[in-house]
């Protein structure tokens, strides 16, 4: 039996090659799951000695998954302390988002990618991150400006982050009509499961970390009224954080807000600095973001094997206990501010109805292809087995869950805040790696701590 006697199968695999060329291979997320592509870079970041080499991933920024690779490259350069290079990569990601926004109509490239996804899988669709990733992008760009000495540039970026939280909320509310229209038992069951995973976090676009960062910069740059507004938004999302509560009491008193007596009754007296004291603010990022898993279900249609693969998350998220900080006289306990993993799970939950529609269309398209091959094989009686086997292999190989997401984001974020006497301190997390910081009278020392597991990085600035 030769390929000359199987023209329909030859065309099938030719179509596969064409789809790959139209959709772009990048690191080939179409066939190689995305978490495995990023794993070596995470290992480099987590190693005490390894040098970070971003050449290969940065070269893919113009590819199908370019926006995602730009986000990853910018974040990895930032974790490694190269804020200038990180800013360049993040600018490319911001431009990519803007290009998505500016498209007045679906382009030929978009149409070919959507068509490829119906034959292959959702990885053929150019990556456009969920709202929480775009919000985090501007927040991290703000950190690049801030730790490079440009506080006003940082303020511009966090304002953009705030605007995006509002626009994402509006977009989500509009999309709910479509979600309700597509709802069925399968969708409802999976959404319910993912909802239980995220606990009290109810959306992907309301991020206490971003609001807190905005409020902090407003306060440090002399705009306490705006700071109060954003601290309050952060506290509405994470109501049990005692540091947010203390910030609200303090600012309410300083600004003579009508809420002061209410806040004082709920959370205690305002804590103000003493003479010759400065303030230490710590933002602690822990771990790496949760990875999507693949849920694959095999089945048959008209005697032909097919598989359905959907992205999902574990049913339980890891909760990091309050982190202890030594070196400031007494042990200071950080408190949870934001669970980035929960934001990611909610983003998947919000996208699930549309993903299931694409999956249903893909299953139908592949079933039609299989039936076409089977009909042709029946006509050519000596080709039944070869045609069926080739089509089933095609279905199994191409059915891959879309596991793409920004994986160098932190898993969780905690904060701590305390007034201490001016001087030099040697601080550490959980009695592990340490660093020396300076605290000045009537100034704030902001310490950004990135703990990837085996390695802890400290970045500080006095404002």
TrEMBL record:
Q: Does the keyword Membrane apply?
A: yes
Q: Which key words tag this protein in UniProt?
A: Membrane, TPR repeat, Transmembrane, Transmembrane helix
Record's SMART domains? Answer: TPR (SM00028)
Q: What's one Pfam family here? A: TPR_8
Q: Is the keyword Cytoplasm in the record?
A: no
Q: Where are the TPR repeats?
A: 208-241
Q: Which residues cross the membrane?
A: 12-34
Would you tell me the protein name for this molecule? Tetratricopeptide repeat protein
Organism (species) = Shewanella gaetbuli
């Amino acid at each position: 039996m030769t390929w000359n006697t199987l023209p329909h199968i030859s065309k099938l695999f030719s179509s596969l090659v064409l789809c790959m060329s139209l959709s772009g291979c990048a690191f080939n997320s179409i066939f190689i799951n995305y978490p495995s592509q990023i794993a070596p870079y995470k290992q480099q970041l987590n190693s005490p000695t390894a040098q970070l080499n971003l050449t290969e991933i940065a070269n893919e920024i113009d590819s199908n998954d370019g926006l995602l690779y730009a986000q990853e490259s910018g974040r990895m350069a930032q974790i490694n302390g190269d804020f200038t290079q990180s800013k360049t990569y993040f600018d490319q990601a911001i431009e990519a988002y803007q290009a998505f926004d500016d498209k007045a109509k679906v382009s030929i490239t978009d149409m070919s990618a959507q068509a490829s996804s119906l034959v292959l899988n959702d990885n053929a669709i150019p990556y456009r991150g969920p709202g929480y990733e775009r919000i985090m992008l501007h927040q991290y760009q703000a950190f690049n400006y801030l730790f490079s000495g440009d506080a006003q540039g940082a303020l511009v970026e966090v304002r953009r982050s705030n605007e995006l939280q509002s626009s994402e909320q509006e977009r989500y509310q509009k999309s709910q009509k479509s979600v309700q229209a597509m709802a069925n038992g399968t969708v409802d069951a999976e959404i319910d499961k993912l909802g239980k995973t995220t606990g009290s976090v109810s959306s992907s676009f309301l991020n206490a970390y971003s609001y807190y960062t905005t409020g902090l910069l407003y306060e440090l740059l002399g705009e306490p009224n705006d700071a109060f507004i954003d601290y309050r938004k952060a506290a509405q999302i994470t109501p049990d954080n005692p540091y947010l509560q203390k910030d609200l009491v303090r600012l309410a008193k300083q600004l003579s807000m009508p809420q002061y007596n209410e806040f004082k009754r709920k959370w205690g007296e305002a804590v103000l600095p003493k003479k010759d004291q400065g303030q230490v603010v710590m933002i602690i990022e822990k771990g790496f973001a949760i990875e999507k898993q693949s849920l694959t279900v095999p089945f048959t249609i008209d005697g032909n094997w097919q598989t359905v693969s959907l992205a999902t998350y574990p049913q339980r998220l890891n909760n990091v206990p309050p982190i202890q900080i030594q070196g400031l006289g007494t042990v200071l306990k950080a408190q949870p501010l934001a669970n980035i993993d929960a934001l990611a799970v909610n983003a998947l939950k919000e996208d699930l109805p549309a993903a299931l529609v694409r999956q249903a269309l893909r299953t139908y398209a592949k079933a039609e292809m299989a039936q076409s091959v089977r009909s042709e094989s029946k006509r050519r009686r000596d080709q039944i087995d070869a045609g069926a086997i080739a089509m089933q292999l095609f279905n199994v190989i191409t059915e891959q869950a879309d596991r793409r997401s920004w994986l160098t984001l932190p898993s969780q974020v905690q904060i701590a805040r305390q007034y201490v006497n001016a001087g030099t301190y040697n601080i550490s997390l959980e009695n592990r790696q340490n660093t020396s910081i300076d605290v000045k009278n009537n100034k704030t020392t902001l310490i950004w701590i990135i703990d990837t597991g085996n390695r802890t990085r400290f970045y500080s600035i006095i404002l």
